[in-house]
Write a structure and sequence with these properties.
The protein has a single domain, classed as P-loop containing nucleotide triphosphate hydrolases (Rossmann fold). 41% of the residues lie in helices and 17% in strands. It has nine helices and nine strands.
Length: 241
């Protein structure tokens, strides 16, 4: 059985591609080469990671899902035995979610021996309400065989509403039985950890590539190693990944 990991969130720029890249890298540390697919119709950031050998499929046409292109995606997924990591775009959030649900894709994947795992982001600051709403929407609409992993990203501000953290919010409490794991992205700002990670992401480098670069200072590599360990230890506890 292959787990089909897909990022879904209607707010752009909140870290979906970063999450896809982290999942793929984590699976590589387990000796498994995941199939990586970028279906973002606007910003194919995930495809930029050369080390991850990401396929790019254009499944959108005129703001709608192209059924034949989506057929190609399913044909690509069907024979997989290793994990699959799919990064989707904010602009395709509504049509893609609707298409997956209306065509009973989670049940289809189950019948093929696979399991759909949706990774969604809760971001702070001005993105908080939009990302919480996006989570509530898909958690309410997707069928029971779909698993959810929530990623908390405090980069844009605290994950807090009326003094309540995400796990105390109504959206989470109403759908907490759907959430298999919550992964905390560390708050990385400033001239050290934040800048080092930002430069690595801008260059579309994996942790392994960056840690092997002698031109980076010893402490830069140490900070990146710490970030990698923080993330991978959480994924180790998330049995669905």
């Amino acid at each position: 059985m292959a787990k089909i990991h897909i990022t879904l969130q209607g707010k752009g720029g909140v870290g979906k591609s970063f999450i896809a890249a982290v999942i793929a890298q984590y699976r590589l540390t387990k000796g498994e080469k995941p199939l990586c697919v970028d279906i973002d119709p606007v910003n194919a950031t995930f495809q930029g990671y050369a080390a991850l050998d990401v396929h790019h499929l254009k499944i959108m046409e005129d703001d709608e899902i192209n059924s034949r292109k989506f057929d190609d995606l399913i044909e690509l997924l069907a024979p997989q035995t290793n994990a699959v990591v799919i990064d989707s775009g904010a602009s395709s959030f509504v049509p893609l979610s609707h298409y997956i649900i209306s065509n009973q894709i989670p049940a289809l994947l189950t019948s093929l021996g696979h399991q759909l795992v949706i990774h969604t982001v809760i971001a702070g600051g001005q993105a908080l309400l939009d990302t919480v709403s996006g989570f509530a929407h898909i958690a309410a609409q997707f069928p029971g065989e779909t698993l959810f992993v929530v990623w908390i990203n405090p980069y844009f501000g605290p994950i807090e509403q009326d003094g309540r953290g995400f796990e105390q919010m109504k959206a989470y409490l109403a759908h907490k039985e759907r959430v298999s794991a919550i992964t905390q992205i560390p708050q990385l700002k400033g001239e050290t950890y934040g800048l080092d990670l930002s430069r690595m992401l801008q260059a579309r480098l994996t942790f392994e590539e960056a840690l092997a670069m002698d031109k980076l200072t010893i402490m830069t590599r140490q900070r990146l190693r710490i970030i990698q360990n923080l993330l991978f230890k959480q994924l180790e506890c998330a049995m669905v990944i």
